[in-house]
């Protein structure tokens, strides 16, 4: 009776390979979750900056949409919609970030969207120094 030698080594290598592939998939999923959080942070920052620009005492004289775009770009996002007309007490900003998946190529190129709304007291719109 012959003994099969090395079969455990092959099995261990196969299991290790499968675990490695699973780890890479989990890493890509984590990257997408991180990008989702970054998109939301960019939308929040852009909405707050846009609504602050609408308040005369806080304004630097810029267009609220331009200020929202600057803050979104600092967070790696692009503004796709900005309802932030000067003289209103609210701003709604939608941003997107392109997904960058390393292991799962089907996820690369997808767009991650986030929306945020910021409001201020309407009385601040008439406050002057």
Explain how this protein is built.
This protein is α+β, with helices and mostly antiparallel strands. It is 45% helix and 19% strand. The chain is built from 2 helices and 3 strands, in the order H-H-E-E-E. Strands 1-2-3 form a 3-stranded antiparallel beta sheet, with helices on one face. Strand 1 and strand 2 form a beta hairpin. Helix 1 runs antiparallel to helix 2. The longest helix has 47 residues. The radius of gyration is 24 Å and the shape is rod-shaped. 24% of the residues are buried. The model has no long low-confidence stretch (mean pLDDT 86).
Q: Classify the beta-strand content into a percent band.
A: 15-25%
Question: Which residue ranges are poorly predicted, with pLDDT under 50 across at least 5 consecutive positions?
Answer: none
Kindly state the number of beta strands.
3
Tally of helical segments: 2
Q: Tell me, briefly, the overall form.
A: rod-shaped
Task: Sketch the topology as an H/E string, one letter per element.
Answer: HHEEE
**From the alpha-carbon coordinates, what is the Rg to the nearest angstrom?**
24 Å
Separation of the first and last Cα atoms: 98 Å
Tell me roughly what share of residues is in helical segments: 40-55%
> What value does the average pLDDT take?
86
Largest sheet: 3 strands, antiparallel
Sheet with most strands: strand arrangement: 1-2-3
What class would the helix/strand composition place it in? alpha+beta
């Amino acid at each position: 009776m012959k003994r099969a030698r090395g079969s455990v080594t092959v099995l261990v290598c196969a299991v290790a390979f499968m675990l490695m592939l699973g780890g890479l998939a989990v890493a890509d999923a984590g990257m997408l979750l991180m990008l989702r959080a970054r998109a939301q942070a960019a939308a929040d920052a852009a909405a707050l900056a846009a609504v602050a620009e609408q308040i005369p005492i806080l304004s630097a004289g810029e267009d609220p949409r331009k200020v929202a775009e600057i803050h979104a770009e600092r967070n790696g996002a692009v503004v796709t919609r900005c309802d932030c007309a000067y003289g209103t007490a609210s701003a709604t900003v939608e941003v997107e970030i392109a997904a960058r998946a390393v292991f799962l190529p089907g996820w690369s190129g997808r767009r991650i969207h986030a929306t945020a709304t910021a409001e201020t007291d309407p009385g601040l719109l008439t406050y002057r120094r």
